User: Fold this.
Amino acid sequence: MPALARLIRIGLAAGTAATLITGLATSAQAATGTIRYFDVNQQGFRIDNPPDNVCFNLQARADEIDNETNKTVRIYLNADCVTRVTDVPPGGARSHIGGPRSVRVLP
Assistant:
């Protein structure tokens, strides 16, 4: 019986370790910082610490987008991240690019 109990404990420990490793590997990553954007009337909007690879539909057509995050932001002309326009590196900005409607942080 002690040998069986020991095998069970080893199996539980291995299973727990595998679960932790898998959970950590698949946890969502996020950019640190803010995506700021402004409409043609210079009304400002922001997205704070956006998660990677999630499409954000903007509240208004953007006339300017400032990437104040630590990751590259991809800009799309249409909602739901359809029709890529350009990428903005960390610390970069783009303006007058056709009024994009959505953005996504690249992993």
In short: The beta strands are 33-38, 44-48, 55-57, 64-69, 73-78, 82-88, 93-95, 102-105.
